[in-house]
Amino acid sequence: MTDESWAGWYRDRDGSEAVVLTTDGQQLRIRIRGVDFEGESFDRLVPVAGTAPESGAPAPADGASSPAEGTFSPADGAFSLADGALTDCVLEWDLPLPVRVDGTLRQATLGCLLSLRRVDPDLHLALHLDGAVYESARAESDFAAALRAVQRILPDGVRLQTCIACAFSAPFPLQVPAQLPAPASSASVPGPRRGLSGSLACSGEAKGAPGDRRTGLVQEVWSCREFEGSPSWATGTGTGADTHTGHRGAFPLESV
Question: Signal peptide location in the record (predicted)?
Fold first, then answer.
């Protein structure tokens, strides 16, 4: 699997700069002012332990991570952290997003604007297709809600082709039906929780064919060659917070 890279901008109280977000469908990585951050969700991007900024500022001693709260201050600027993750900043980027238009695969562009506040991050998505723009609300709580908002206003015959709309995905935490294998990486995820992104469980092992898969937890905007559309998601039925009805049946979601 080839990683995807998305060009964008990072802004905080110290200024703005061009950045590149890289993902493999499960783990995000971004380099800001010479400092690497990574995490499974946009609201859980933490400084990479032991990584020295390009400016030559020392990395945390003995490979220790940066402080969980407050300010992480390499030489080129300070970063605000909450629970060890990047906060009090804005990320903006565009990514290619596959869509089906009357059964034909097309490439659209999804513009993403994320305000990473300490409480309740704001997310806005805008899908650009054939000169038209289809937008979510200005303050969505996560990628799942924002992508559903976009899908609802798309013309008939136009469907997103990403993990959020795949028949083999379901929100995490979940109770996997007995006939399906548990997502490989779900055991390492603490708690019942639902994040800003990366909160989908992919039952890729149930697809029955080797190849391009991401069994475990995946990001909502990821798309693989084994994608199979979930009719219930595209039509707006079964898309609430409690269930996701896919190719292999319902995935009951635990209460959170």
Answer: none
Q: Please check whether residue 163 is in contact with residue 246, taking contact to mean a CB–CB distance below 8 angstroms.
A: no
Strand partners, 32: 35
Structure tokens at 43: 């609201």
CB-CB contact of 221 with 110 (8 Å):
yes
**How far apart, in whole angstroms, are the C-alpha atoms of residue 165 and residue 99?**
11
For residue 176, how many C-alpha atoms fall within 13 Å in the half-sphere facing its CB?
21
List b or e across 224-246, with b for residues whose CB sees 16 or more CB atoms inside 10 angstroms.
bebbebbebbbeeebbeeebbbb
Q: pLDDT by residue for the chain (256 residues), tens digit each?
A: 578 999 999 999 989 999 999 998 889 999 999 999 999 889 889 999 755 444 434 344 344 444 555 666 665 568 999 888 999 999 999 999 999 999 899 999 999 999 988 777 789 999 999 999 999 987 787 888 899 899 999 999 999 998 888 888 777 654 343 333 443 333 333 333 446 887 777 776 555 544 444 456 788 888 877 788 877 675 654 444 334 444 343 333 322 2
Cis, bond preceding 210 (omega within 30 deg of 0) = no
Q: Taking phi first (over 0 means left), then psi (-120 to 50 degrees means alpha), and beta for anything else, what does residue 185 get?
A: alpha
